[in-house]
Structure formats: C-alpha cells, structure tokens
C-alpha cells in the first residue's frame, strides 16, 4: 500500500466534474484523481477547510456515531479499480476487534479528512491510475495554490444546477 495525502478537490475542466486529488507522500510523487459527486466534493472541502455546519452533515454524523460507540477509523484504503470505478475500504478498530467496511472513495476520504487518519492506495491501483508529477523536482504546482483550488471549486458549486446530475 502507498500512503497518500488528500490534496483537495478540484474541477476537471473538460467535463466540469468535481475530482478529489490524492498525492503520493514518498517515492514517485504520483497523484491520483478520482471523479466524485458535487455533494461529496463539498463534504471533503468543508472538512479540509474546517467548516462546521450548524447541524451535522452525513459524514459528521457517521463520525459522531463511531465516536459514541468507541470505534476508530484506523485508516482508509482506495483498494480497487474495476471497470473504471474506484472502490475503497474503511479499516475500523475497537480494542482487539477490527473490521473492514466497503465504501465509496468519496465517503471514505470525507471521513478520513474528519478524523485525520492515514489514507492509502493499493499499489496496483496507483500503478494503473496514478500520474507522475512532471514538476515534482521543480516544486511547481501546476494546479495552483490550495486557495485557488478552493475558489475554483466554489465557483463550480455556485454554477451547478440540479438538472446537471440527471434524473
């Protein structure tokens, strides 16, 4: 497994679709972009920015339930890429007990951002879908600063309409 950092959410320009970007923490400095839905992108962006909703959002509720029953999210894994669909797992613990629960990557990452747990990508998934950062040696950020990425995403959220998501 390859440890990654949750860089943030952005909008893929050609399709005007939100994506979440993961960056390999060591090694080849590859990045992995996963298309996600608008609400999930908002949930991740809120967590990364430390935005507190007046009432718990779905991922906050799930975190609160886990806290109430004393279960920790040890880590999350983007575990598989099958038929152009990414799959993820939540690795949960409570003392000597542990569980692995299947999840959508967007939900797993939204939770990971809330509990500040490690995020991993299966080696095979990164080898298949990861993209090498050609500017890694130069320290350039081709996607702009985190503030620019957040502003770009806010503009996307402001322009999206319910009919953009189909029936």
In short, what is this structure?
This protein is of the alpha+beta class. 33% of the residues lie in helices and 33% in strands.
Topology:
Layout: E1 2-12, E2 17-24, E3 31-35, H1 38-49, H2 58-68, E4 72-82, E5 85-94, E6 97-103, H3 105-115, E7 119-121, H4 123-129, H5 146-159
Parallel strand pairs: 4-7
Antiparallel strand pairs: 1-2, 1-7, 2-3, 4-5, 5-6
Helix pairs in contact: 1-3, 2-3
Descriptive notes:
The protein is α+β, with helices and mostly antiparallel strands and 167 residues long. 33% of the residues lie in helices and 33% in strands. A seven-stranded mixed beta sheet has the order 3-2-1-7-4-5-6. Strand 5 and strand 6 form a beta hairpin. Helix 2 crosses helix 3. It starts with a strand and ends in an 8-residue tail after the last helix.
């Amino acid at each position: 497994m390859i440890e990654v950092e949750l860089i943030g959410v952005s909008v893929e320009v050609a399709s005007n679709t939100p994506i979440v970007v993961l960056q390999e923490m060591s090694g080849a400095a590859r990045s992995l972009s996963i298309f996600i839905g608008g609400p999930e992108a908002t949930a991740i962006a809120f967590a990364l920015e430390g935005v507190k909703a007046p009432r718990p959002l779905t991922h906050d509720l799930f975190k609160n339930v886990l806290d109430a029953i004393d279960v920790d999210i040890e880590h999350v894994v983007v575990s598989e890429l099958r038929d152009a669909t990414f799959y993820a797992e939540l690795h949960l613990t409570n003392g000597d007990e542990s569980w692995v629960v299947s999840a959508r990557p967007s939900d797993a990452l939204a939770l990971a951002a809330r509990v500040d747990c490690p995020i991993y990508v299966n080696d095979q998934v990164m080898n298949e879908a990861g993209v090498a950062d050609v500017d890694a040696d130069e320290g350039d950020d081709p996607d702009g600063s985190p503030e620019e990425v957040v502003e770009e995403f806010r503009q996307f959220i402001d322009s999206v309409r319910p009919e953009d998501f189909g029936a």
